[in-house]
Specification:
Rossmann fold, globular, 8 helices, alpha/beta, Ribulose 1,5 Bisphosphate Carboxylase/Oxygenase, three-stranded parallel sheet
């Protein structure tokens, strides 16, 4: 059953022609009428149905405007790297002891970083970490010897870009309380990342078919891309 608040929102937003993100963002914020700081979310429909194979995108984008979230970062590393991780403000740091805690289900963190030499121990926990999207991955910058840099980037704000089997990508690019400039910077970072990813793919036609923007409790609008890719 729809709430009184929701019934007051526009009912024909999806029927409107796509418009540039700057204009649509202002409308989205006007529709943020919930009594909390709603997130501003993007939804992409990509052209993943190819003759030879489906497109599988997975990458991480550093968000220049931040995400508004406090990220707890855990680091699994050898003894020589522990102080570096602590100095970089990691929330949990350890070696075999932390691996054992994770094995026992203690996962009070949102991001897990691991040095290459310790990955062999974490790889055995795939059934625990995999379903939660926490398994470190070199492509995502979470398997690295540059511990301080990885921690800094994770805490500054990152978004994972990953499509589902139907070719949909969903992610947040900020909060209603963010100024427009921050949200648009994050939006542009996502677009630039997708353009870069396309150049690494063998794909017939455009990668992105449609882009929608909404708030967590609002209605969605189509975004007009500056160029197709």
């Amino acid at each position: 059953m729809k709430s009184k608040r929701y019934k007051k929102l526009p009912t024909n937003s999806k029927d409107k022609a796509p418009d540039v993100v700057d204009k649509v963002l202002k409308i989205i914020k006007e529709n943020c009428t919930a009594n909390f700081d709603e997130s501003i979310d993007l939804s992409f429909r990509i052209n993943n149905k190819q003759k030879k194979n489906e497109i599988n995108l997975r990458t991480v984008v550093n968000m220049p405007g931040g995400t508004g979230k406090v990220i707890k970062v855990a680091v699994v590393c050898e003894e020589a790297k522990i102080q570096e991780a602590k100095d970089a403000k990691a929330d949990l740091v350890g070696g075999d002891d932390l691996v054992e805690k994770i094995k026992n289900g203690n996962m009070n963190f949102e991001k897990l970083i691991c040095t290459p030499s310790m990955m062999i121990k974490l790889s055995k926990l795939g059934k625990i970490l995999g379903p939660k999207g926490l398994m470190p991955n070199p492509k995502l910058g979470t398997v690295t010897n540059e511990i301080a840099k990885a921690i800094s980037e994770a805490k500054a704000g990152q978004a994972e870009v990953r499509n589902d089997k139907d070719g949909n990508i969903g992610l947040s690019i900020g909060k209603k309380s963010f100024n427009d400039e921050k949200i648009i910077k994050n939006y542009n970072a996502i677009i630039e990342s997708l353009e870069k990813e396309k150049s690494n793919l063998t794909i017939k036609g455009d990668l992105v078919k449609q882009v929608f923007i909404t708030s967590s409790m609002g209605v969605s609008y189509k975004i007009k891309l500056d160029k197709s890719f």
